[in-house]
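Practice record 12: protein with S-adenosylmethionine.
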Amino acid sequence: MASKLRNIIEDIARDYLNSALTLRYDICTCPACKNDMLAYILSRVPAKYVTTEEGALHTVIQQSRVEHQAVIGRVIIEAIEVISKNPRHKLKEDKNKVFSLLLETIKENRGLDFTHYHQELLKRRIAIRLRANRMETYSEYLRYLINNPEEYDKLFATLCINVSEFFRDPEVWKKIRQILKNIVEDKIKSSNPYICIWSAGCADGEEPYSIAILLKEILKDKTYNLHIDISGTDVDKKSLAFAQEAIYEKNLIKNVDKELLDKYFEPQDNCWRVKKEIRSMVNFYYLDLTGQEYKKNVDVIFCRNVFIYFDRGLQEQILMKFYNALRNDGYLVMGKSETLISEAKHIFSEVDLDCRIFRKKEVNSITSP
Ligand SMILES: C[S@@+](CC[C@H](N)C(=O)[O-])C[C@H]1O[C@@H](n2cnc3c(N)ncnc32)[C@H](O)[C@@H]1O
């Protein structure tokens, strides 16, 4: 009997397609659309026929998987894009419209405006909550959110990725130490000995506490009549409450050397708690960078690993607001994967591009681009 031939690329593509479609609640993934996507992929990837009786079928499939992975991956993205934009059937609802409605509802009910956050990132994060609640559509989730407001907390915890670290990116902190030292020296001599530092998007507080520790180290127990104001702000109220408590799991504190740990932390169960002398240097409060007024005359703004959330327009607006919040020559420290865009490139100068440290140009030194 002739053995049956089977196109193993179809098996592989189906497998990859299924995993690419998990958590995609923004497009139609009904069986008909899935089939169309598969057909689209198969029309663009060469077939590979093997007999089902082949003893080494598993190995052949694995080899083909590796061999064709890149091209199938690329074609899958194309297939999803093309088919989801032109499904053969009428859509029951416009998923993107419902998604916008979901964001509008969050804004209205909780005052947090995610409409200018990166949409793809938001969709991926919101998909986690849909899956956790075993839901298939944004409209189902929207109804659930309205009827179960306690879900907001879980949603925000998923949306606000609040991972941080003490002295995150240690090489940046070497540079920051020098900058803070210069600011302290200048302020000691000045008639206005007020130092204002703002950690915007401070998550669980590691960043503002790192700043406070560095300043303590620079001042070496002297005060020089300086008035030091360090603020940590965020939109995640749970993070702010955590930051105020200042208790961190021991294994999550990586970049603090033993001497600083002994000096500024005290053991508490399996954790380290930041000592009161450092805690009392930092004020935490709720501030939504997308809407609220910023403070003025800030010497250094830290806004690290927060811009990843925002679309370009919102980044531009916030950079202008940072500019206005800084004193002349004030510093802006961004995350290692973030940078200045548009107009902001002309109104800030680079202090250290690797460390993403910039400085406000004085108004009269700005030349038109
Ligand atoms: C990844 S953490 C960054 C923590 C810290 N800056 C660092 O680099 O380690 C990002 C923080 O930005 C906050 N965030 C997101 N949107 C915000 C907004 N509109 N206003 C203020 N903070 C925001 C999140 O809640 C989260 O705590």
